[in-house]
Specification:
Elements: H1 2-14, E1 20-25, H2 28-36, E2 42-44, H3 46-54, H4 64-76, E3 82-85, H5 93-105, E4 110-114, H6 133-146, E5 153-158, H7 160-164, H8 166-178, E6 183-186, H9 192-201, E7 206-209, H10 221-227, E8 231-234, H11 237-254, H12 269-275, H13 278-287
Parallel strand pairs: 1-2, 1-8, 2-3, 3-4, 4-5, 5-6, 6-7, 7-8
Helix pairs in contact: 5-6
Organism: Paraburkholderia agricolaris
Keywords: Lyase
GO molecular function: lyase activity
């Protein structure tokens, strides 16, 4: 019931004029921290999750089982609704139906499905190819039929912009909306003018993917809202920041400089204990001490 309420609340929130910003979560620490900050929505990044869980590129190497494991763990640890990357649905139409049911059953607020050929690739890297529009339309229709909760969000993503141009991406977007997608995600627009054209083309919640160093301009949430977007995801921000911080502190350790000079750049150990739930452990120990 809690998950159903969270999905209903997210659907209602996305219908409001103010844009929703969703940080990318990629491991259990990022989930716990983001959840504690009371965002309206979180986004389970495929790139970051595959990197942190398996240590491999986001190039179709993670299986449905791998990702369902992460969806289940992330959603169990968060009261904030999470939209989760479902890649291409991990196969044909039967796989798409199974993936939607699995993600919904695990507690996700929605699933992102994309029209890339298998094996897929990160949307801001080269070499992506897309399936026929009709094939993706069938996937979306199956996804809509497969869900139990009508508030479970189906996010339809097209990667056609990079290889086939914006006009083809817009045509695909129209077809995906007609097929029943709740949120439309046109990946990798490359200019502000393209973003404006996307925002003007649809009367549907629109998702924009902000990747630092990626193809899409780094506009502010207010600017993106003015262009017509309802949801801005920041999938890479967290793991890029963490990796940068790790490199800095590991370099100091390697250089035999210690870490005392890095204290201001680190999360405090006391706050980390609170974040991970140690106070409940200590209270349990006090109650059951000999």
């Amino acid at each position: 019931m809690i998950r159903n309420n969270a999905r209903l609340n997210l659907r209602a929130r996305l219908s409001q004029p103010e844009i929703v910003v969703a940080p990318g979560v990629f491991d259990m620490i990022s989930v716990r921290l983001a959840d504690s900050m009371k965002f309206d929505c979180l986004y389970m990044t495929g790139y970051g999750t595959v990197a942190s869980y398996l240590g491999v590129p986001d190039a179709g190497l993670a299986t449905y089982t791998d990702m369902l494991n992460r969806v289940t763990a992330f959603c169990a640890a968060s009261d904030t609704p999470i939209i989760c990357d479902g890649d291409t649905g991990y196969g044909g139409l039967l796989n798409v139906a199974n993936t939607v049911r699995g993600y919904e059953g695990a507690g996700a607020a929605g699933i992102q499905l994309e029209d890339q050929e298998f094996p897929k690739k990160c949307g801001h890297t080269p070499g992506r190819r897309v399936i026929a529009t009709e094939d993706m339309v069938r996937k979306i229709k199956v996804a809509v039929e497969a869900r139990v909760d009508p508030d479970f969000q189906i996010v339809a993503r097209t990667d056609a912009r990079t290889s086939l141009g914006l006009d083809e991406a817009l045509r695909r977007g129209e077809a995906y909306v007609r097929a029943g997608a709740d949120i439309l995600f046109i990946e990798s627009p490359e200019t502000q003018e393209e973003l404006e054209k996307i925002g003007q083309a649809f009367d549907k919640p629109l998702l924009v993917n902000i990747v630092e160093g990626g193809r899409t301009p780094q506009l502010t949430p207010a600017e993106l809202q003015a262009l017509g977007f309802s949801l801005a995801i920041y999938p890479a921000s967290g793991f890029l920041a963490v990796t940068h911080a790790l490199e800095q502190v590991y370099t100091r350790i390697q250089a035999l400089k210690g870490t005392s000079g890095e204290a201001d750049a680190m999360y405090s150990f006391a706050k980390m204990c609170d974040l991970m739930g140690f106070p409940a452990v200590w209270e349990f120990d006090r109650q059951h001490a000999d």
